[in-house]
């Protein structure tokens, strides 16, 4: 533990073209629990936040319209490793903690896993060893949570204070979005806008009631990208 | 790894009075992935198996009608430790692997956590360290999955064979329930029947459609307790 230099290491979650059933809410809750710095939403920016238990307001969200732009942002602007969570040839067990520095974790959609295009932007892959023959794979949020948990152990993130039988929740940040804004290169912004325009018709809302839409709208306001 | 003697150690999941929102399906999928031997359902025996991805047919289910009966079964007949997954005073970080032998993991309901009565039947407690201030606790299925994963690492369960980007799923067992049946003491059976009668009116079905009820009925047939 504490392998990484103190404060120097961050984890980021990348979700690409979120499917409806892919519950970003629960994922956000785990991300918040395990000290994730930013959630990068690529492609479709709408998602269902049910299950977040308010944790989305404590996370920084960034939207990028394409995988190449996501890679450019993560590699060139952030100097992160991009780690795919997928069982592929050469994937390393996450229990071996094959991390070197700040890492962005790219998650596949439930069912199909990471696509070829998604795999292409990854530097390496981790998988979670299984011991029983009753299922071919884990729920994607469960898998992501286990990987983020192990990254936190490897990085030696300081443990959050507990009170009673809960961890202490921080004060709700008041409109930190702009303060956290990371200036992008002009070139990236131009390309980003182009892609965003092209993708506009993909921006559909969850159809399970007005409440859900309000939540999505509230989340929209939080994006920094 | 491989701390425990080979083949000598098992993990069991205990769920008590399953609430509707507590998704046993995803939990069953993780249980199957991490080599859990049995799912012990205490009290209400109906549950929602959505998210199991067929893994429930590979798991052994047992129903016991009360917490004291569950403790008697797990301690006297099985000689297991009972480990509560809860942030309480004296709870140990699961990353320290504070296990000694076969262990049954008792999970709290989402939101309220383990009740006083549930805590009473536990021998010890583990919790999952958190590093961020954005949430007071994890989703219960996520928490359970991380704990079961760590038990498998500690026990040195052999890793399941992979093929392509999935773990190989075993042949569907054909009606193993009776073969796996573990004979109970006469005393336990009598008390069990008494409790079951008392609890009969609590046995309600999930109300989200007829399909759900069919699933529940199919699962009913699998119980060995």
UniProtKB/TrEMBL annotation, chains A, B:
<dbReference type="InterPro" id="IPR051259">
    <property type="entry name" value="rRNA_Methyltransferase"/>
</dbReference>
<keyword id="KW-0808">Transferase</keyword>
<protein>
    <recommendedName>
        <fullName>tRNA/rRNA methyltransferase SpoU type domain-containing protein</fullName>
    </recommendedName>
</protein>
<dbReference type="InterPro" id="IPR029028">
    <property type="entry name" value="Alpha/beta_knot_MTases"/>
</dbReference>
<dbReference type="InterPro" id="IPR001537">
    <property type="entry name" value="SpoU_MeTrfase"/>
</dbReference>
<dbReference type="GO" id="GO:0006396">
    <property type="term" value="P:RNA processing"/>
</dbReference>
<feature type="domain" description="tRNA/rRNA methyltransferase SpoU type">
    <location>
        <begin position="12"/>
        <end position="149"/>
    </location>
</feature>
<dbReference type="GO" id="GO:0032259">
    <property type="term" value="P:methylation"/>
</dbReference>
<dbReference type="GO" id="GO:0008173">
    <property type="term" value="F:RNA methyltransferase activity"/>
</dbReference>
<keyword id="KW-0489">Methyltransferase</keyword>
<dbReference type="GO" id="GO:0003723">
    <property type="term" value="F:RNA binding"/>
</dbReference>
<dbReference type="InterPro" id="IPR029026">
    <property type="entry name" value="tRNA_m1G_MTases_N"/>
</dbReference>
<dbReference type="Pfam" id="PF00588">
    <property type="entry name" value="SpoU_methylase"/>
</dbReference>
């Amino acid at each position: 533990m504490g392998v990484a230099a103190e404060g120097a290491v961050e984890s980021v979650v990348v979700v690409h073209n979120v499917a409806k059933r892919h519950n970003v809410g629960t994922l956000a809750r785990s991300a918040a629990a395990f000290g994730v710095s930013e959630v990068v939403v690529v492609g479709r920016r709408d998602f269902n936040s049910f299950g977040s238990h308010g944790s989305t307001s404590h996370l920084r969200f960034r939207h990028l319209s394409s995988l190449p732009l996501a890679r450019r942002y993560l590699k060139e602007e952030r100097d992160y490793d991009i780690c795919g969570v997928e069982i592929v040839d050469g994937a390393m067990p996450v229990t071996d903690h094959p991390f070197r520095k700040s890492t962005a974790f790219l998650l596949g959609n439930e069912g199909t896993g990471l696509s070829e295009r998604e795999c292409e932007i990854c530097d390496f892959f981790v998988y979670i060893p299984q011991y029983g023959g009753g299922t071919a794979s884990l729920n994607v949020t469960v898998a992501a949570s286990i990987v983020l948990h192990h990254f936190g152990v490897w990085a030696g993130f300081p443990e959050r204070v507990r009170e009673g039988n809960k961890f202490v929740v921080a004060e709700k940040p008041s409109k930190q979005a702009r303060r956290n804004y990371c200036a992008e290169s002009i070139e990236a912004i131009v390309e980003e806008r182009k892609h965003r325009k092209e993708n506009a018709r993909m921006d559909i809302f969850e159809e399970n009631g007005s409440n859900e839409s309000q939540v999505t709208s509230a989340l929209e306001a939080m994006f920094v990208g």
